[in-house]
Amino acid sequence: MLEIRLMKILTFILLMIFGIFNSQEVKNYAFESLPENLDKPILIYMKTDWCSICKIQKHQVEKDLQLKNLIDEKVYFITFNPEKHKESITFFGENHTYISNGNSGIHELAVELSSNKKPLYPSWILINKDGKVLFRNEGLVANGTLKLLISTSTPLSVTNKKPSEN
Predict the structure, then answer these.
(1) Which residues pair with residue 43 across a beta bridge?
(2) If you write DSSP's letter for every residue of 134-162 in order, what string do you get?
(3) pTM confidence score
(4) Which of 13, 29, 91, 165 could make an SS bond with 161 (beta carbons 3.0 to 4.6 A apart)?
């Protein structure tokens, strides 16, 4: 009887420890809190509250401890909701503002970062420390792709321009 109780207690403790480590939150930066001299790339995750694919993407990332660790170590990670972020953003020396459309609106930085000036969600943008876009994807991205992208931080697609030159 005592052995069974001890086993239950030990199992409970192990599950709690595993749960604590697995629930690690990714360090999230704000545009304003980025250091002046960047020593690693910036990974921007653009999403909205209403986007169901964004919720799937968030769940995929949250359950992958290896990916969360890579994000924390290798990039400045910014979660950006362009429909809610109404404050002005200075990014690579350029000021960007919120464009109101009555009850709603969008941040002009999201328009600049999107590939065709019309943001799709979710969007992932990897920008190097010099402001060059290394990767851009609009839509769901597999965790394996994100791991490769973050591990190498090398251009994997189309654009090598500053966000303002798109």
Answers:
(1) 77, 126
(2) EEEEES---HHHHHHHHHH----SS--S-
(3) 0.78
(4) 165
Q: Considering the chain, what percentage of its residues have pLDDT values greater than 70? A: 80
Please state the domain extents for the chain: 26-165
For domain 26-165, give the CATH number. 3.40.30.10
Take residue 39 and report the two structure tokens written for it: 């020593």
Residues across the chain: 166
Q: Supply φ then ψ for residue 55, to 5 degrees.
A: -65, -40
What per-residue confidence (pLDDT) applies to 16? Answer: 56
CB 57 within 8 A of CB 141: yes
Judging by beta carbons within 10 Å of its beta carbon (0-12, 13-18, 19+), is residue 122 exposed, middle or buried? buried
